[in-house]
Design a protein that fits this description.
The protein is an alpha+beta fold. It has a 7-stranded mixed β-sheet, covered by helices on one side. The mean pLDDT is about 90.
Length: about 130
């Protein structure tokens, strides 16, 4: 994983991770609405990095099913743009994807610590 630089922005403490399972661009990981760097966020970042392949497989399969059911589409042009962690929730993550067929709203996914998809929906699913 290498060294990770943490910083603060308007959404919380953040860092960028290169998650090869999701492509070649670094992904912003945000400890949502928490502005201090705690060990829990560092642990969440390590967990995401270590389990990126399993997370990718589970999440993409769930999104594909969601897109087929809701939009009657087989368009799989997804780009992961953000991952949210939550300070007061143990290992639950929100993933925000840009999707070509709905660039305004995107697709949000919430997963638990076991990589099980809790919910797939519009973008706010990732962070609400």
């Amino acid at each position: 994983m290498g060294a990770v630089d943490f910083y603060e922005d308007d959404e919380g403490v953040c860092c960028y991770l290169l998650l090869r399972a999701f492509g070649s661009k670094p992904i912003q990981v945000i400890n949502l609405e928490h502005y201090e760097l705690y060990e829990k966020f560092k642990e969440d970042v390590r967990f995401i990095y270590k389990n990126q392949i399993e997370i990718h497989q589970t999440v993409i399969a769930s999104i594909d099913e969601y897109v087929r059911q809701k939009y009657q589409s087989d368009d799989h042009s997804l780009e992961l743009i953000k991952i949210y962690t939550f300070h007061n929730v143990e290992r639950e993550f929100g993933l925000l994807f840009d999707w070509r067929e709905d660039p305004e709203h995107g697709i949000g996914v919430r997963i638990n610590k076991d990589g099980v998809v809790i919910k797939v929906g519009s973008a706010e699913t990732a962070f609400l």
